[in-house]
Structure formats: structure tokens, C-alpha cells
């Protein structure tokens, strides 16, 4: 069914823009979804985040930016933090999840609620609202859950879910097996309490999401719609959002804004156009123009820079982005190190390799060796003699050159560089 009042398919339709960006993988029906998203009346939608860690990571950005995208188009977001479902855990194919203490989960709920706040607006006609499924789930007794929710779920359909089938041989607890019922009930409660008409999530949640759509129908409510976004992958097969240091978190105390910026700046050429479509709020025309400019000047990495600056600004704000850009330039001699905040400088040097020294500082040759930029003093002296050694972006030409306390940035840091691109840091401790 298609409403004649809808805008024609094309570049200006929200649904067609989402399809062009590759953001819709599965749906309960494209015609129905188009009617809901492009009809002009504004729909209430929800997306959920379970508190399985003290912070969201970049893998959550697909859902966070989608929530923002839909609100900017005139729809109303309900951001659900799973204070109840987070205590249960969605089944994994590999093994049973470790259950965290309720008080730990409660703390994570508050942190994630605060973390979601900057991505949407809480004012206006389509103001966002934060909700916690512990509000309604915590009130239910076991008998109420079994009578009012459980009786609407055929076990044969639950067993057909792929992740459940994968766990049948190794074993799955009733706790994790019941997760689908809790998530489905969330959709019903949000529909009943807030008029929620739409749910979206990652494609790995399709079974849970369609169970919710069906449950709302079985309870005589609705109609409601749903869609999933694709799982973000890397071209080499490794997991998106992982680096050698671990996950890339949205919390600046867990992943610094500089490291966050560098993660996007270092995206592979084969992936950057796709990531821009997924995460950027630039228009289709702007993205196509950027792709053309990047193809003409690939060495400039224009697409990566645009992606890194936009997402760092979205997550951490413009000031931190300016610091991250300034640090990237200054460390390679294209800006002033003195203008970097100590937190940004330390974060950047930590990414490169930060050596902590105490007591009297060695000479420049010794610093190069201690930092790992050279293998020994003989090589260090050769690099200095050939003009390839820098301290705080100043070339050192004397093989026995020393540094003094006045050379320390913020009273404790030195930036060492060998050649154009290899650098490391030294921090003077007590």
C-alpha cells in the first residue's frame, strides 16, 4: 500500500536516501516503511542499547547516527537503555554470557544514557526521550510474565532462530532463551505507552525484532513496522571497531578523542566511501563530489579526513576535533606543538609509543634509543649526523646534543621524530 501523498521515489525521499546509503537491509515491507517515513506526519520509533560495558563503542554508531538521521527528518526517537535486558544478555553463538551484577549494570545504564544525549534533541515537537525497560519489566511477576507474554510465543519459532539453533548442542540457558520475549515486550510496551510505530536495529537482531512486531499484532495492537541496518564490516574480514589496543569507545576516558580521530583517518581506501554513506550527514551530492575529489587526489586522503573530522565533532565536539587535527599536523612538523593541550599531546604520544623516564634525561642519541626509534646508539648517532633526527620538531645535527628542562613541553613531554613519519614520545616522571 502506497499513500498518494508521499513524495515520489528519488533523491529527496528519506527512504530512498536510506536505500542509497545502504542503510536498510531487512524490513517488514518497503511500501509500508516508505508510507511511515515519507508520509509527513512523523513517526515515533525506538532503538535499544544494552549496557554490556561502561561505554558504547564505534560499532554502536550505526544505530546512534540512524536515530539522529530519523529525528532530523521529523520523526520522534525513543532511546531505550536496557536496564532489564542488560541483566539477561542476548544469546551469543559461542557461549553463555557472563552475568554482571545489577548494581554494575545500573551504573552502566546511567553512563550510556548520558552518552546518548548529545546525538539527538530533547526539545521541539519531535523531542527525543530516554527510556529504560526496567521500568516495566521490573514490575512484572514471574506469573505475569508467563501468562501475559510467554503464551504468545510458539517454542518451535523460538527454536528456529539461528543463534538458538547454534547453541542447542552446546547448551543454552532458559535465561538467554527468554531474551527474545523481553525485547518483544519492549516494543509492545513502547507502543502502548508512547505510540511507538517503528523499531530498528542491527541485522543480527532481525529475529528479535520480527518477534516484537508479531507480538504487538498478537496483542491486538499495531500496526507496527521494523527494519534493520547492515552489520558494519571491514574489507579484510576483521571486526569493525577493533584496533590492536582493543575496542574504539565513545567515552573519551576509554578512547581519547585523538585516538578516535586517528581510527577514522586510517580507514582503508576500500572502505571509506561506504563508511561515509553510513555515518556522514553530508548530502548525496556532497558525498559524490567528495568521492570524485578523492579519486583525483588519492594521496590527500580527503575522504578519510572528512569522515574523521565529522564523526569526531559529532561524538566529542568541535574543540576536541580542532585539537586532534592540530596534533596530527604538529607531530609531523606542520604545526606548533606548544598549542596542543597536555591531554591531547599525551594521547597522541601514547598512540605512537610513549616512554616514561625518571631522573636525568639522556642525550638525544640515548633518547632515540630509549624510544625505540633506533636499535642502538651507533644508529642513533648516524641518524643525527645525516639530519634525520628531530626533538619537538627541531632538527638536531650534533651527535652529542643534549636536552634540558626548558625543552620539555608542559614541563614533562618530548616529541622525538626520525625522518618524516616515525615519531615517539618521552614523558619525564618523578
TrEMBL record:
Domain Tyrosine--tRNA ligase SYY-like C-terminal span(s) in chain numbering: 358-424
Compartments where located: Cytoplasm
Name listed for the protein in its UniProt record: Tyrosine--tRNA ligase
InterPro entries the UniProt entry points to: aa-tRNA-synth_Ic, Rossmann-like_a/b/a_fold, S4_RNA-bd_sf, SYY-like_C, Tyr-tRNA-ligase, Tyr-tRNA-ligase_bac-type, Tyr-tRNA-ligase_bac_1
This protein's record includes keyword Repeat: no
UniProt: L-tyrosine binding residues: 46, 179, 183
Family: Belongs to the class-I aminoacyl-tRNA synthetase family. TyrS type 1 subfamily.
PROSITE patterns, per the entry: S4
Organism: Micromonospora parathelypteridis
Motif position, 'HIGH' region: 51-60
Main location: cytoplasm
Name of the encoding gene: tyrS
Domain of life according to the entry: Bacteria
Residues spanned by motif 'KMSKS' region: 239-243
Function per UniProt: Catalyzes the attachment of tyrosine to tRNA(Tyr) in a two-step reaction: tyrosine is first activated by ATP to form Tyr-AMP and then transferred to the acceptor end of tRNA(Tyr).
NCBIfam families noted in UniProt: tyrS (TIGR00234)
Keywords: Aminoacyl-tRNA synthetase, ATP-binding, Cytoplasm, Ligase, Nucleotide-binding, Protein biosynthesis, RNA-binding
Enzymatic reactions: tRNA(Tyr) + L-tyrosine + ATP = L-tyrosyl-tRNA(Tyr) + AMP + diphosphate + H(+)
Cross-referenced SUPFAM superfamilies: Alpha-L RNA-binding motif, Nucleotidylyl transferase
Residues where ATP binds: 242
Any one Gene Ontology molecular-function term assigned to this protein's record: tyrosine-tRNA ligase activity
Enzyme class: ligase
EC numbers on record: 6.1.1.1
Amino acid at each position: 500500500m502506497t499513500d498518494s501523498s508521499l513524495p515520489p521515489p528519488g533523491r529527496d525521499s528519506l527512504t530512498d536516501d536510506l536505500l542509497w546509503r545502504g542503510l536498510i537491509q531487512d524490513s517488514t515491507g518497503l511500501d509500508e516503511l516508505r508510507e511511515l517515513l515519507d508520509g509527513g506526519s512523523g513517526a515515533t520509533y525506538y532503538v535499544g542499547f544494552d549496557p554490556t560495558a561502561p561505554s558504547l563503542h564505534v560499532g554502536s554508531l550505526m544505530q546512534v547516527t540512524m536515530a539522529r538521521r530519523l529525528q532530523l527528518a521529523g520523526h520522534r526517537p525513543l532511546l531505550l537503555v536496557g536496564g532489564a535486558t542488560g541483566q539477561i544478555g542476548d544469546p551469543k553463538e559461542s557461549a553463555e554470557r557472563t552475568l554482571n551484577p545489577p548494581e554494575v549494570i545500573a551504573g552502566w545504564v546511567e553512563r550510556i544514557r548520558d552518552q546518548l544525549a548529545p546525538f539527538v534533541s530533547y526539545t521541539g515537537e519531535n523531542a527525543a526521550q530516554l527510556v529504560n525497560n526496567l521500568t516495566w519489566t521490573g514490575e512484572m511477576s514471574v506469573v505475569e510474565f508467563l501468562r501475559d507474554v510467554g503464551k504468545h510465543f510458539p517454542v518451535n519459532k523460538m527454536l528456529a532462530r539461528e543463534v538458538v539453533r547454534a547453541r542447542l548442542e552446546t547448551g543454552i540457558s532458559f535465561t538467554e532463551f527468554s531474551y527474545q520475549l523481553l525485547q518483544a515486550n519492549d516494543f509492545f510496551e513502547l507502543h502502548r505507552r508512547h505510540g511507538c510505530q517503528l523499531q530498528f536495529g542491527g541485522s543480527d537482531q532481525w529475529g528479535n525484532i520480527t518477534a516484537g512486531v508479531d507480538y504487538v499484532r498478537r496483542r491486538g495492537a499495531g500496526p507496527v513496522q521494523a527494519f534493520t541496518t547492515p552489520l558494519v564490516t571491514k574489507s579484510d574480514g576483521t571486526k569493525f571497531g577493533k584496533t590492536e589496543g582493543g575496542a574504539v569507545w565513545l567515552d573519551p576516558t576509554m578512547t581519547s578523542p585523538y585516538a578516535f580521530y586517528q581510527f577514522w583517518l586510517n580507514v582503508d581506501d576500500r572502505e571509506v566511501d561506504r563508511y561515509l554513506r553510513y555515518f556522514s550527514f553530508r548530502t548525496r551530492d556532497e558525498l559524490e563530489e567528495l568521492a570524485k575529489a578523492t579519486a583525483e587526489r588519492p594521496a590527500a586522503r580527503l575522504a578519510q579526513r572528512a569522515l574523521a573530522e565529522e564523526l569526531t565533532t559529532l561524538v566529542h565536539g568541535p574543540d576536541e576535533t580542532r585539537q586532534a587535527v592540530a596534533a596530527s599536523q604538529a607531530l609531523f612538523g606542520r604545526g606548533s606543538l606548544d598549542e596542543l593541550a597536555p591531554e591531547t599531546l599525551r594521547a597522541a604520544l601514547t598512540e605512537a609509543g610513549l616512554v616514561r623516564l625518571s631522573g636525568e634525561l639522556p642525550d638525544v642519541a640515548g633518547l632515540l634509543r630509549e624510544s625505540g626509534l633506533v636499535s642502538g646508539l651507533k644508529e642513533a648517532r648516524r641518524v643525527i649526523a645525516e639530519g634525520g633526527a628531530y626533538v619537538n620538531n627541531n632538527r638536531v645535527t650534533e651527535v652529542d646534543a643534549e636536552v634540558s628542562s626548558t625543552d620539555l613541553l608542559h614541563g614533562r613531554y618530548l616529541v622525538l621524530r626520525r625522518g618524516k613519519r616515525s615519531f615517539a614520545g618521552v614523558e619525564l616522571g618523578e
